[in-house]
Amino acid sequence: MSQTVTATRVLSYLEDGKTLRSWLLTTDHKRIAILYALSITVFFFIGGTAAALIRYNLVTPQGALPSAETYNRLFTMHGVIMVWFFLVPAAPVTIGNFIIPLMIGARDLAFPKINLMSWYLFMAGGACALYALFAGGVDTGWTFYAPLSSNYAQGHVVAVVAGIFISGFSTIATGLNFVVTIHRLRAPGLTWYRLPVFIWSFYATSVIFLLATPVLAITLILLSFERIFHVGVFDPRIGGDPLLFQHMFWFYSHPAVYIMVLPGMGIVSQIIPCFSRKELFGYKFVVWCSVAIAVIGFFVWGHHMFVSGQSPYASIVFSLLSYFVAVPSAIKVFNWLGTMHKGRIHFNAPMIYALGFVGLFTSGGLTGLFLAALAADVHLHDTYFVIAHFHFIMVGGMVSAYFAALHFWWPKITGRMYPETIARGAALLMFLGFNFTFLPQYILGYLGMPRRYHSYPPEFQVLNVLSSAGASILAVAYVLPLFYLGWSLFRGERAPRNPWRATGLEWTTDSPPITRNFLVVPTVTSGPYDYADPHTKLADV
Amino acid sequence: MSENVAPHTHFQYEDARHQADSAIAGMWLFLATEVLFFGGLILAWIFCRHWNPEGFAAGAKESVLWIGTVNLALLITSSFVYGLGQAAIEAGRVRMLIWCCLLTAGIGVVFLGLKLLEWHVDLDENLWPAGPFKLHGAEADGGRLFWIFYFVATGLHAVHMLVGIVAVCWIALRARRAEFTADWHTPVTVVGLYWSFVDMVWIVLYPLIYVVGRLS
Description:
The structure holds two protein chains of two kinds.
Chain A: H1 20-24, H2 29-57, H3 68-103, H4 112-134, H5 148-152, H6 157-184, H7 197-229, H8 242-276, H9 283-296, H10 312-340, H11 349-372, H12 374-380, H13 384-414, H14 420-447, H15 461-491
Helix pairs in contact in A: 2-3, 2-4, 2-15, 3-4, 3-6, 3-7, 3-8, 3-13, 4-6, 6-7, 7-8, 7-9, 8-10, 8-11, 8-13, 9-10, 10-11, 11-13, 11-14, 13-14, 14-15
Chain B: E1 4-6, E2 9-10, H1 16-51, H2 53-60, H3 65-90, H4 94-124, H5 140-176, H6 186-215
Antiparallel strand pairs in B: 1-2
Helix pairs in contact in B: 1-5, 1-6, 2-5, 2-6, 3-4, 3-6, 4-5, 5-6
């Protein structure tokens, strides 16, 4: 380690090695998080571009894009990229990778080399998928239902599926690393009930990674076999069952919804207490609700298949269980509100994003109950109501939470403060743009407009134009942070160790942290949300 | 690269024991994902079999029982031999470990050789499900389904075997470099867990492929 700067100062992780090699072969969890952050940002904007073209097409009833085929390939590309190359990995591999070891007082993850390997797997999978999507794409939708995907679809199904398969191993590696790290590398005194909810949430997410992803892997192998050899176990012509594909696919993909949203819940559980200057209300309830969501989430997949012809008795059970999973989610929302009650609320950008998460997640969650109801789902299935519902959770909820985390920990990650005023503006704009885009889609779906159609009857045009107009606002809100966060890297004010006067071990080390995180491993003697003095001033920028 | 505070111990761990326990926990978790991986396949297999019992039975009767059985015996023996190696290194006997690893890997190679022979026989008998298929009539469709599962399952198992053989050879190589002692031999334990798991997968696949169909 170079000692030329000063005799006492230890180099931060950003300064400890300047070559490209020192980044590409790093085993430092913080640097790997940065590599991941850059990669998923690229994927986010590729997926976002596809979304923009979808909204452009839907401005006119006959469809602005030249062919329905192109449109099908676009929405498939949007879904595949956004689900597997942005939403599923986004928060765990960037924010989680960076923050988890810092938050539990560890010097790195349990398996640093596996962590680096997971990034290379992710990039290999991403390259496979991108190659396929740009070589002509796939028109099956992100769900790859057999026998469409296996026997009839045009395009590069096998290459996209291979990309998803490979990236699945990267998320398994990440989940495995997190579980072992959280079990084995907590600082002295950091008992389970002293862990921040953030850690519990990412733990629950990791367990889902481990238990659900392998099932997707085997499903995709069986699908690829059928695609390549034109004979397979999902083929009804030889006694196979296409519904079996749906069951196996959703056994992964429904828990994957919780992979996407549980990290968001963990993030806002850190931010809301900090900016309310109050302890998290009902800590143990929030903790066990995270676990409950992860567990119950494994038993509700059949609610995607109410109109598929599965047994009505199965549907009744799946419907009931889907209601059950709403209970822990609702408990959490009340806990966040309870935390803010009589708190001293500061509307900094992370808090605005976090509040956006709570509101949009609640809307998405409540409309989920409509879809869990058997009779209502027959009407709403495969309409824009479903699109609006899951975008409220995934995009309104999770992407807001991701941006909340990015702003909240930005000073820790980069050592610079972001410009507060414009960040608040961007946060508000994102909330407005989001509602503008997706509220009309609830109505469209209720009126009966089906998803995945290139054209639509003229009476739906006004609502579609509203939605597309909203999407353009949303696009601005997503691009803005690129500029001001990028600017802050060079011109932002130097961040102190703990700009938000937040609790948590990550705020006790330097900003940006040194390579080994802590000079002396900290010892923990109190709970995670010790906001005793509500009148502490935030270092407002 | 990470500096070591003690031989083999990375800086995020308190001591070698702490690191060893974590590595073993990591392998157990990985094996849990493998259970779900093969579990999904076996569940789909049993589901399809339930709806096509005659076809699956007819298909299974075409499998080469003696190769499957010999392979079963080989794999169980290999796990036993590797276990001897583990016991040896716990007593500090490095040479014995090396020999056990080589024998284990050798048995693995014989397993794969027999597997290749079996595939060759299967293809000769027109049992590849996508080709002109051996079975006809009412049993043809279920038979094809059985052989799809057969080739997917044995193919995936063979890939796991290949990984296992490389891993066991790597252990032998490291043992030869005198890296393992009675006090520190975590990689030996971790690879052993993996090898035993791959063995166990075969123990589950064996009745599914060779036995159940012959009994019905």
